Amino acid sequence: MTPATAPRPTSRALSFDAVADQYDEARPGYPPALFDAVEELAGRPLQGARAVDVGAGTGIATRLLRARGARVTAVEPGPAMAARLHRTQPDVPLLRGLGDALPLADGSADLITYAQSWHWTDPARSLPEALRVLTPGGALALWWNIADAGLPWIADQDERIRRWSGEGAHGAHSVSGRGGELPAELNPAERRVPWTRRVPLDTHLAHLGSHSVFRMHGEAAATAFLAAERAELLRLFPDGTVEEAYVVELTVARRA
To answer: What are the Cα distances from residue 118, in Å, to 17, 53, 80, 121?
Structure first.
């Protein structure tokens, strides 16, 4: 069920709405080992857990949580992203809202997840909201797919994007203002989960193009950059298949 209105996200966060289908089709998922680590650090299985996936986007993490048996409610502010999620997962309860003001009752969740989305919130608001909605003993899990810049080609690509965008970081390789660290009094635990995927070059470029840094620089500029990037990558991957390497950075804290 989707309410008619929702709090307004930032213009940069809302930029994903313009590429909702591309986002869902090209963005990487998450490896099974990530969800093993979530279960370990949360101290309970995902099977049967009442989970809330905040900033769910098109539901990439939502699908994987459900595959592990969690009973997931999705929270997403963007209308087009939410529409894509509802179209592909019509049986998932879906609420339009922000992490800074969760549209959920006190103590109603065993697990709250932020997959690639905590950095869009104001932690001074989103953390108290998460703790309010969690049941005692429940867990808050934050994670990001970070492209592994230890590989020279990924580091080189990151530098090209930095020079082009004039920004210190972009979403594919690092997350500016990520704010993944939680207060020490919550005793947060961290894991790093490496993984890879092999995708066609077109998928890799569509993945890059779905990030906010490209959306905010405009269609013409993004198209020109990605065309040049295609030529660069074809020198490295002449068969047109790119092996992307990631490290998922995970932080989990339990509510007392």
So the answer is: 18, 11, 20, 6
